[in-house]
Amino acid sequence: MYTIGEVAQLLGVSTHTLRYYEKEKIILPDRNEHGDRIYSESHLQWLKFDLKLKETQMPITKIKEYAYLYTEGEHTAINRLKLLEDHKSSIENQLKTLEETHKMLEHKITSYKEMILKRDEGVTKA
Q1: Does the entry feature the keyword tRNA-binding, yes or no (predicted)?
Q2: Of 10, 71, 97, 124, which has the fewest CB atoms closer than 10 Å, so is most exposed?
């Protein structure tokens, strides 16, 4: 079991973020007898997944939708699958864009290096 501070430190997020996720019903931690938030290993794994979705540009509304569907139970599996497939498609488009941009940058960098090398060779000969 983990406290909110421990989870924040383990995941590299603020306690404010964890409270926000709770307010938005993305995560529902347990409470101890004093009312303090207590996170289990499964909570930690769930948060890691949610944070990955966020890192890959899934809108918070979609993360909330996924969390809601998950808590509703197994009968929402088709909807959850569709949501994740749509996000996977979005990531694949991002990857394609990144690869194209990477190639363009490589070309530009090579061009600049060649230009600078030729300029420096001309200065050395003079």
Answers
A1: no
A2: 124
Within a 13 Å sphere around the CA of 21, how many CA atoms are in the beta-carbon half? 27
The pLDDT tens digits of the residues spanning 8-25 come to: 999 999 999 999 999 999
For 39, phi then psi, to 5°, come to: -110, 135
Average pLDDT, the chain: 93
**What would you report as the CA-atom Rg of the chain, rounded to the nearest whole angstrom?**
23
- Count Cβ atoms below 10 Å from residue 19 Cβ, excluding itself: 15
Give the tokens for residue 50: 């949610």
Architecture of domain 4-125: Orthogonal Bundle (1.10)
Q: Please give the model's pTM, rounded to 2 decimal places.
A: 0.75
Express as a percent the part of the chain with pLDDT over 70: 97
Delimit the domains of the chain by residue range.
4-125
